[in-house]
Design a protein that fits this description.
single chain; 401 residues; mainly alpha; Growth Hormone, Chain: A; 15 helices; 0% strand
Length: 401
């Protein structure tokens, strides 16, 4: 028993290292794309197109991931797609032409989605072997956001290096962090391949659309994925714009986003620990109530950053806390190949939710200024409450129904 616990603990550590390596590189890539496009004097519309291509690539990535899940093992998918991200980073170091960047942005979305499916599935599956499941998934999300934030910040601290040297150094660090997972025999033995039949009583998904529909069997997860998918896109995209509209300088506006990301990286383990103690359904309600109170503070104390900054810190924590909760819930319900397909469904639905709600929030800000962001967040909270109330009156269906 102790040997098994030690094995799963070591696998978690290896997983966290790989997450740090991948997200560190993705953070550098995501900051560098707009920087290079801006140097090329492209319009804001074309720079915005870069973000849209990433979202489109993410949707396509769920389809690619669905195909790969039926053909390859966990480690094979991670090795192929992880190597693709590192190659993409090196290509960006050699060439920074706008046309190439658009292609790379689309490719990044595909590769990132496939890697996230494997990492989320691994985190959900491994946490099931421990008592404090949401706490461990909170650590997973903390590492995710923390490494991504370090990647975005590293660009600033490495500005004295040549572009190629900067990306070579980042690529080397990412590869070193991913090597323990990529060549872990224990990980391969523990998870094996997705090929063949899933666990007993769980029929394989015959089509892509049925795989997407696996979350329909878990209404609580579906609502949670809708919420964190929207929040994870809305706030990082629009918070700097929100701050600048309130009169802050671009530097101070970026600090507002930093506060949000710090909350996303620090609070998830604490929120996960609380969720393990009070129950996951109650935790979902608690997160949403606290987030709604934070939105009210933002609206009433608009422009008073003495109140707004700690509020944004908490909002960041709740956003990633909802993500950890979704991973925990889906891991409790599904196993094996079906768990991987459910994680793929989470990535797809979360991305669609984020894309739609971010466009809607931007429209609200065009109509009502900074207040438009809080109005859109209130709308999102209202939809979340409606969804959670609906969940109280229905029971999750079985896969055979």
């Amino acid at each position: 028993m102790k040997a098994q616990a030690a094995l799963y603990t070591n696998l978690l550590i290896v997983l966290y290292l790989a997450v740090a390596g991948i997200l560190f590189c993705l953070g550098i890539i995501d900051v560098s794309f707009p920087e290079f496009l801006n140097r090329a004097h492209l319009s804001d519309t074309l720079i915005g197109l870069n973000g849209s291509l990433f979202c489109l690539g993410f949707v396509v990535g769920s389809m690619v991931g669905f195909y790969l899940l039926k053909k390859l093992s966990y480690l094979s998918i991670f090795r192929v797609c992880g190597a693709g991200i590192f190659i993409l980073l090196l290509l960006l170091g050699f060439w920074q032409s706008p046309s190439l960047i658009f292609v790379l942005s689309f490719s990044e979305g595909i590769l990132a989605c496939c890697v996230y499916i494997v990492l989320d599935t691994s985190a959900a599956s491994l946490s099931n072997h421990f008592k404090n499941k949401a706490f461990l998934n909170g650590i997973y999300l903390a590492v995710t956001y923390g490494a991504y934030a370090m990647g975005t910040s590293a660009v600033y601290y490495m500005h004295n290096l040549d572009t190629l040297d900067r990306f070579l150094l980042a690529c080397l660090l990412g590869i070193l962090l991913c090597l323990p997972l990529a060549f872990s025999k224990k990980f391969s033995e523990a998870f094996g391949s997705f090929q063949g039949e899933p666990s007993a009583g769980q029929p394989p998904a015959p089509s892509y659309m049925k795989a997407i529909g696996y979350l329909l069997f878990l209404p609580l997860v579906l609502v949670t994925v809708f919420l964190y998918g929207a929040l994870d896109e809305i706030l990082p995209e629009l918070l700097p714009v929100y701050a600048e509209n309130l009169g802050l300088t671009p530097g101070s506006a970026s600090l507002v986003l930093t506060i949000f990301i710090l909350g996303s990286a620090i609070l998830p383990p604490l929120l996960g620990y609380i969720a393990d103690r009070i129950g996951y359904t109650r935790a979902a309600w608690t997160y949403l109530v606290v987030f709604t109170i934070c939105c009210l503070i933002m609206l009433l104390e608009m422009g008073d950053f003495f109140f707004t900054w700690p509020t944004l810190f908490i909002m960041g924590g709740i956003t990633s806390g909802l993500s950890a909760l979704g991973i925990t819930l889906v891991g409790l319900r599904y196993k094996g190949a079906i768990l991987a397909l459910a994680c793929m469904s989470m990535e797809f639905i979360g991305n669609i939710s984020g894309t739609i709600m971010t466009l809607l929030s931007g429209k609200f800000m065009n109509l009502w200024g900074p207040s438009g962001l809080t109005i859109s967040l209130f709308l999102l909270c209202f939809l979340g409450f409606c969804g959670y109330i609906f969940c109280q009156f229905i029971k999750p269906k079985s896969l055979e129904s």
